[in-house]
Every structure is written in structure tokens, then in C-alpha cells.
Design brief:
Helix 1 crosses helix 2 and helix 2 packs across helix 3. The chain has three helices and no strands. The protein has one domain. Helices cover about 75% and strands about 0% of the residues. The chain is globular, with a radius of gyration of 12 Å. The protein has about 80 residues and is an all-alpha fold. Keywords: Cell membrane, Membrane, Transmembrane, Transmembrane helix. It is a multi-pass membrane protein. It holds the Pfam family Transgly_assoc. One of its GO terms (cellular component) is plasma membrane. Its main location: membrane.
């Protein structure tokens, strides 16, 4: 996947994560993309380690894995911001 594909997938995953966990978080469009791209990496790594999923790009499974990783990053971010 090219860098533009990662950005688009990151945007989709980040928006879905924010939609699943609404709240008042600092950051805008760029943070949402970074959260989604990071979530794709985290979700793919965790899914592969557990043997339940792998990240394979623009498929429904890839979007779900990336979104799950973005949700995980968002929860960790919120926990760290409260501390």
C-alpha cells in the first residue's frame, strides 16, 4: 500500500474510532489520521500475535482491524491524559 492509501485508511479508522468513543479530545483532522494509521499498525500487530486477524489493506477485515487498533490507542491516550 502506498502512503496515500495509508492516510485514507487511517482517516477512515480514526473517524470510526472517534465515532465509537465520542468525547472531547484535543486534536483535529491530523490527530485523527495519525490515530487511525497508528491503530492500523497496532491492530495488525496485536491481531497477528493473537492469531485472530491480520492487517491486509482495504478490505473489511483490514478496516475493522485498523479501527480496533485506533480504539485501543484512543483509550490509552485518554487514560494517560487523565493521569
Amino acid at each position: 500500500m502506498g502512503i496515500l492509501s495509508w492516510i485514507v485508511l487511517g482517516l477512515i479508522a480514526g473517524v470510526l474510532a472517534k465515532w465509537l468513543l465520542p468525547g472531547k479530545d484535543p486534536g483535529g483532522f491530523i490527530i485523527t489520521i495519525l490515530l487511525g494509521v497508528g491503530g492500523a499498525f497496532v491492530g495488525g500487530w496485536v491481531g497477528t500475535q493473537l492469531g485472530i486477524a491480520s492487517f491486509n489493506g482495504f478490505t473489511m477485515q483490514g478496516i475493522v482491524v485498523a479501527t480496533a487498533g485506533a480504539v485501543l490507542l484512543l483509550v490509552i491516550y485518554r487514560l494517560l491524559r487523565k493521569a
